[in-house]
Amino acid sequence: MSEMSTMTLMELIQDIHAMDEELWHYEARYGLRSRYFYELYKAGQLRDEDPVEARDYTDWAACYEIKYHREKLYDALVRDTLQEVKSQP
Predict the structure, then answer these.
(1) For residues 88 and 23, which has the higher predicted lDDT (pLDDT)?
(2) Is the N or the C terminus of the chain less surrounded, counting Cβ atoms within 10 Å?
(3) What does the pLDDT look like over 1-56, one tens digit per residue?
(4) So what's the pLDDT on residue 1?
(5) How many of the other CB atoms lie within 10 Å of CB of 68?
(6) What's the per-residue H, E or C state across the chain?
(7) pLDDT digits (tens, 9 = 90+) for 68-78
(8) Burial (CB count within 10 angstroms: exposed 0-12, middle 13-18, buried 19+), residue 86
(9) How far apart are the C-alpha atoms of 7 and 31, rounded to whole Å?
């Protein structure tokens, strides 16, 4: 069974908001929006000498990826739901 079929719209929304809250904490701590952080992270352009920062970067990237994935699942589920509604007589 796919992840999309096991999560409801409400569960996805809750996960997205939980990730938003986590991302906000990292953004406030480092003064950088998550989208830009993630680009730098993937390009290997962040200093990582400090073990605490390196761990934060890994956690921050994971939160960003989870949010991105949940948003994609949400969009697909909404599209499917809207398609079902449109096809009903």
Answers:
(1) 23
(2) C
(3) 345 457 888 999 999 999 999 999 999 999 999 999 999 999 999 987 899 999 99
(4) 38
(5) 15
(6) CCHHHHCCHHHHHHHHHHHHHHHHHHHHHHCCCHHHHHHHHHCCCCCCCCHHHHHHHHHHHHHHHHHHHHHHHHHHHHHHHHHHHHHCC
(7) 999 999 999 99
(8) exposed
(9) 33
> What's the token pair of residue 36?
């830009």
Q: Give the CA distances from residue 24 to residues 18, 64, 66, 80, 87, in Å, rounded to whole numbers and listed in that order.
A: 10, 11, 14, 30, 40
Structure-token pair, residue 2:
């796919």
**15 Cβ contact list (under 8 Å, min separation 6):** 7, 66, 67, 70
Higher pLDDT, 54 or 87: 54
CA nearest to 69, candidates 33, 22, 19, 29: 19
Q: Give me the amino acid identity at 89.
A: P
Where are the domains positioned within the chain? Answer: 3-83
